[in-house]
UniProtKB/TrEMBL annotation:
Protein name: Gfo/Idh/MocA family protein
Classification via SUPFAM superfamilies: Glyceraldehyde-3-phosphate dehydrogenase-like, C-terminal domain, NAD(P)-binding Rossmann-fold domains
Keywords: NAD
Gfo/Idh/MocA-like oxidoreductase N-terminal domain boundaries: 6-115
Lineage, highest ranks first: Bacteria, Bacillati, Actinomycetota, Actinomycetes, Micrococcales
PANTHER family per UniProt: D-GLUCOSIDE 3-DEHYDROGENASE, UDP-N-ACETYL-2-AMINO-2-DEOXY-D-GLUCURONATE OXIDASE
Lineage: superkingdom: Bacteria
Any GO MF annotation of the entry: nucleotide binding
Coiled coil spans: none
Keyword hit for NAD: yes
Domain GFO/IDH/MocA-like oxidoreductase, residue spans: 135-259
Source organism of the structure: Sinomonas puerhi
């Protein structure tokens, strides 16, 4: 039998328990869970009941130093991700972080820099949507230049409806000090990652953000952000947690085509026969008149292809876990290197900072300014310590 990576799961909440079950059910053939750590005694009892062969710990560091695990996946509150990542890497343990990589860029940068000192260890992040076959295919299309140079992107992703009871379930949720933000840090990090993974990293952002707009919370529940990629290319990102019917529509317009994604399941890819400007400049007034009269043959200008994939629940997450283990075992390239976690955190920070200052914010914004603004909000809550 081929060797399996001995994995420790940190936190036995919704995500941690799901990952343990995926592995127990055989969805990740190159991993075995050998330990689970959780601070809650009731959860430790549940772990022992469900997985009697797994060692249970009440302390994360004790688990790291037990010799029982060689890798961990961290499914804990966001602020703890960088700290726990560093603690594992310090002890020679491979790390798969749950998203987001952290709450603010200063702490994520510290994690990335430390990971750089331990290149022999695998450091990855759970961006499971990168394992979605549809988005992997679209990235290939964009990277190959099939729709030309990107001119505009739009993503409206409001399928995150959360009733008030969701926010009321714990004291830390939807707080600046406990969770570090709202929809940008809890629901939408996957889209912030995919947006940049496929379309590129913007240069700056201007945002209008609503805090406690339709829910009794301190953090954001609606976001509209406009990004500037440079050279005239722009993008718009809209997300919210109060739209009960929700929309998931992603458009990428290039100078030689277009991609329209619906519900993260199907995409219509339009490929122009020539760059749009060439088509425009080749049309005289007679051609324009015929077009207005309905004498327009699309085949003269473009072709269209519909792409659709079905992805079973859990397949994307289990695929990232399997890829993480494969990198440890044989060097298989990572789908989502841990250092990529900085991209989404940086964009979320920039969106927040723009809304707080009322200004357009560069992606190389002042990290100390952001942290000072975040700490103002944590102090006003009066529930949690400020962050350093």
């Amino acid at each position: 039998m081929s060797r399996k990576v001995r994995l420790g799961v940190v936190g036995f909440g919704a995500q941690g328990s799901s990952y343990a079950k995926f592995i127990a059910d055989g969805l990740v053939p190159n991993i075995e869970v050998t330990a689970i750590a959780d601070v809650d005694p009731a959860k430790r009892e549940k772990i022992a009941e469900l997985y009697p062969d797994v060692q249970v710990f009440d302390d994360y560091v004790t688990m790291l130093e037990s010799g029982v695990v060689e890798a961990v996946v961290t499914t804990v509150p966001h602020y703890l991700h960088p700290q726990m990542g560093i603690q594992a890497l310090e002890r020679g343990i491979h790390v798969l972080l749950e998203k987001p990589a952290g709450v603010y860029t200063k702490q994520v940068k510290e994690l990335n820099e430390f990971a750089g000192t331990r290149p022999e260890l695998t450091f990855a992040i759970m961006f499971n949507q990168r394992n979605n076959p549809l988005y992997r295919k679209l990235k290939e299309i964009v990277d190959a230049g099939e729709i030309g140079k990107i001119k505009r992107t739009n993503w409206i992703i409001t399928t995150w409806w959360r009733p008030q009871g969701y926010y009321d379930q714990s004291e830390w949720r939807a707080t600046w000090g406990g969770e570090g933000g709202g929809v940008l840090v809890n629901q939408a990090p996957h889209q912030l990652d995919l947006w940049q993974w496929i379309c590129g990293v913007p240069q700056s952002v201007f945002s209008k953000v609503a805090y406690g707009f339709r829910r009794n919370i301190a953090v954001e529940d609606e976001v509209t952000a406009v990004v500037d990629y440079g050279d005239g290319a722009t993008g718009v990102f809209v997300t919210a947690t109060h739209d009960i019917t929700g929309t998931d529509r992603f458009e990428i317009l290039g100078d030689q085509g277009k991609i329209v994604v619906e519900d993260s399941k199907t995409a219509v890819v339009t490929r122009l026969n020539k760059p749009e400007r060439e088509l425009s400049e080749a049309m005289d007034m007679d051609d324009v008149r015929k077009m207005f009269q309905g004498q327009f043959n699309p085949a003269d200008f473009y072709t269209q292809e519909t792409i659709a994939f079905e992805s079973a629940w859990g397949a994307q997450h289990s695929g990232v876990l399997e890829n993480f283990a494969a990198n440890i075992l044989d060097g298989t390239p990572l789908l989502a290197p841990g250092t990529d976690g900085m991209l989404g955190v940086r964009l979320a920070n920039a969106i927040h900072l723009s809304s707080w200052t009322g200004k357009e914010v560069s992606m190389d914004f002042d990290e100390d300014e952001f942290l000072a603004e975040l700490n103002k909000r944590i102090a006003a809550e009066g529930k949690f310590p400020e962050r350093a």
